[in-house]
Each structure stands twice: as structure tokens, then as C-alpha cells.
């Protein structure tokens, strides 16, 4: 019984120290200060809008993406635990197919 009291007291102390450390740390939403260079990889901006049509067949590891946005879009297919497509520019009504061997379909993002 004595051991449990010491263990729980130690856990309370560890939790208090962790809470203090988290409160002192900067927020994770701070903007990066380094400017982007032309040689750096393109930044992902988020999930592609609904005007980008996705036809996914997960068990065949296949996706066909069609740009119906009315303007050129910079898009990339993200594969979870596998190779992503490159970030490329696709014109209105242009479509393309992407297949992969390892991983599973994640999403289409703008870049």
C-alpha cells in the first residue's frame, strides 16, 4: 500500500511538471519565419475543393482525378504510407489517373 501512494504522488508531480512545460512552450500555430525558396518543395495548402472530382478504387490502388473548377489547379494525390504524386498543374476539364503499389489513398490536395 505504501508503494502505491508514492507512485501516485510521483505521477501527480510528473503531470504538474508536464503541464508547466506545456504552458511555457510556444504555440504550434506560429508562422514559419524562413522565406520559401524556389528550390524548396511546394507547400501543401489543403484538401482540394469539391470541384475536383475523385474516382477512387481503393482495392485496385487507383484514382482518377478530374479538374472541373473552371480554372487551372495545382494538385497532388496523397497516398498514406506510400508514394505521393508530384504537384502538377491541370487545366479545366483535364483528368488524369494515378496508381500506386504500396499504401492507401489519402486525399487530393492543392499545392
UniProtKB/TrEMBL annotation:
Naturally occurring in which organism (per UniProt): Streptomyces huasconensis
Gene3D superfamilies: Alpha-amylase inhibitor (2.60.40.20)
The protein, known as: Alpha amylase inhibitor
UniProt KW Signal keyword: yes
Presence of the UniProt keyword Signal in the record: yes
Record's signal peptide: 1-30
Entry superkingdom: Bacteria
Keywords: Signal
Amino acid at each position: 500500500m505504501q508503494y502505491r501512494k508514492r507512485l501516485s504522488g510521483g505521477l501527480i508531480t510528473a503531470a504538474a511538471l508536464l503541464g508547466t512545460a506545456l504552458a511555457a512552450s510556444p504555440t504550434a500555430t506560429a508562422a514559419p519565419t524562413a522565406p520559401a525558396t524556389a528550390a524548396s518543395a511546394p507547400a501543401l495548402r489543403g484538401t482540394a475543393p469539391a470541384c475536383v472530382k475523385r474516382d477512387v478504387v481503393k482495392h485496385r490502388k487507383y484514382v482518377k482525378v478530374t479538374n472541373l473548377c473552371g480554372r487551372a489547379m495545382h494538385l497532388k494525390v496523397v497516398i498514406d504510407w506510400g508514394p505521393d504524386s508530384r504537384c502538377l498543374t491541370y487545366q479545366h476539364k483535364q483528368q488524369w489517373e494515378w496508381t500506386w503499389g504500396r499504401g492507401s489513398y489519402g486525399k487530393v490536395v492543392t499545392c
